[in-house]
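Input sequence (78 aa), recorded before submission:
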Amino acid sequence: MRGLSRMNLLYQGLSILTGVGFIYYGISCLVSPTMRQEFERFGAAQYRVLTGILEILGGLGVLLGLCSGTHSCKWHRR
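Predicted structure, token format:
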């Protein structure tokens, strides 16, 4: 049982890190001049705002999934 709770803690910690990372890079896509230049450099300038919005929504989805307790990884409860 002790190992399972450590795995659950690891899962939650990594999920939080992932969610925050997505939100950070999503905001960066929208406001950072450096990210604007990178999108232009790779020829994807028209997708910069869409990418930023989708990253923010994805990060919020990860974090809300943890808060709601309905995440699909329920193996630790068996």
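Checked by second reader. The chain has a mean pLDDT of 86.
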